[in-house]
Amino acid sequence: MPPFLAGLAGKLIIGAVVVSSLFGYWMHLKSEISTLEKNNMTLKINTGKLDDAIAVQKSTIEKMKKDFVNIEKSKNKIEAEKKKSEKKVVALKKKFNKITKSGKKRDLNNIAQRKPKMFEKIINRASIFRNRCLEIATGSLVTESDSKNTVCPELVKPNVE
Q1: What gap in Å lies between CA 15 and CA 10, rounded to an integer?
Q2: Model pTM?
């Protein structure tokens, strides 16, 4: 083979190797770009899901804040009712533990034995009032005669708040 062809054949072979290498590299880059595009699409989908989750969490936090405010209001209302009840308990203790003129504590058992009719009348009246309280609590209308009811004044004369 003549030397000028050997040089040309060598150049052609080198050219073919360079062209096939460039073609292979181009195919590799095309594959990488395709993979990156798929990954980018997956990331966009995941970002959308995360944004949705964040929105749900924010709305949950807002609801929890509102619930906390409502719970705080309820707690304050219950504490106020507790204080009222404690005052009532103190008043009842004073009423039932009165000191007689002789300086002794009042003995309700002794009084009940001496005056059973009086105790019966007091208990019967309280029972009637309690039954009326149950009627009012279950929807019965308050009447003028209910103003004498001392068992459940909060139902007979509701507090205006």
Answers
A1: 8
A2: 0.47
